[in-house]
Amino acid sequence: MCCLRLTNVQHSKNCFAWDNFSRCMLGFVRRQCCDFNNIICLKTLYCSLVRSGLEYGSIIWNPYQSGLIQRLDRVQCNFLRHLVFKFELNVSADNLGRELGLHSLTSRRTFDVSFIFKLLNNKLSSPEILEKVNWNVPAFNARSTTTFHVPFHSQSYSFNEP
Questions:
Q1: Which of 9, 58, 117, 132 is most buried when burial is the number of CB atoms within 10 A of its CB?
Q2: Is 148 helix (H, G, I), strand (E, B) or coil?
Q3: Whole-model pTM?
Q4: pLDDT per residue over 57-103, tens digit each?
Q5: Taxonomically, which superkingdom (predicted)?
């Protein structure tokens, strides 16, 4: 599975592709590991086979629509509910996720800000990405402290495109 990175590809198609791929991998893990009795082992398999696919390229195709975000978060929720059912635990799926150290995918995506920080502070070398940043360079000395320029878009769809 590769990260679809074409200029005319909608991010929703990419999210659907990764969601389908992750659900297939989760089904594979559930079927092949039905005899496993160790939660840590199942967590390791989930993180290496399923979650790694959900996080691969997330900086590029990070969804902004709540429906797509919830769709990707449901994959992990399904895994946690499976563990609660399989091991007959008396905890909620959210509490089990916290105990296992599996933070929601939404909260993990907030760390994408660190990528921007590294890019702007020259700790990461990527001139192709850096040239796409819209800097705000004022023509005269003004009190405005905005660093980036957001181009005007008449529709919210074009405002959120990459």
A1: 58
A2: strand
A3: 0.67
A4: 676 667 777 888 888 889 999 999 999 999 999 999 999 999 999 98
A5: Eukaryota
